[in-house]
Design brief:
Blueprint lengths: L1 E4 L3 E4 L4 E8 L5 E8 L6 E6 L6 E3 L7 E6 L4 E6 L8 E9 L13 E2 L3 E6 L1
Parallel strand pairs: 2-11
Antiparallel strand pairs: 1-3, 3-8, 4-5, 4-9, 5-6, 7-8, 9-10, 9-11
Length: 123
């Protein structure tokens, strides 16, 4: 499985970005999760979505601002980030895990990782 995150860039505080994560290869039973790592900070799990899109989860720091969705026909998961703050500046990664149900944002639960995309929020 290959994962490709994109959509990062420079945005002003309060703005919106949409990050696609495109999966290729054997995509059966893949759940997708988003993580980020800011300079000097720990790796943080943000959100995940189940293989059919029925299950979603958000960590408290992004709940109400970020929305995860998936288009299985396109093998793509989207993270829409609204009301961005300077503290959202980080490299954002998508990762995948094969699960029959639910999803997780634990690093140890991931089977595949993509390369990151940089999001910079100016205040």
């Amino acid at each position: 499985v290959q994962l490709q995150a994109s959509g990062g860039g420079l945005v002003q505080a309060g703005g919106t970005l949409r990050l696609p994560c495109a999966a290729s290869g054997s995509t059966d039973y893949l759940t997708i999760s988003w993580f980020r790592q800011a300079p000097g900070k720990e790796h943080e799990g943000l959100s995940c979505i189940g293989r059919r899109g029925y299950s979603t989860y958000y960590t408290d720091s992004v709940k109400g601002r970020f929305t995860i969705s998936r288009d299985n026909a396109e093998n793509t998961v989207y993270l829409v980030m609204n009301s961005l703050k300077a503290e959202d500046t980080a490299v954002y990664y998508c990762a995948a895990a094969r699960r029959l149900s639910g999803c997780t944002i634990r690093d140890s639960g991931m089977d595949y990782w993509g390369k990151g995309t940089l999001v910079t929020v100016s205040s």
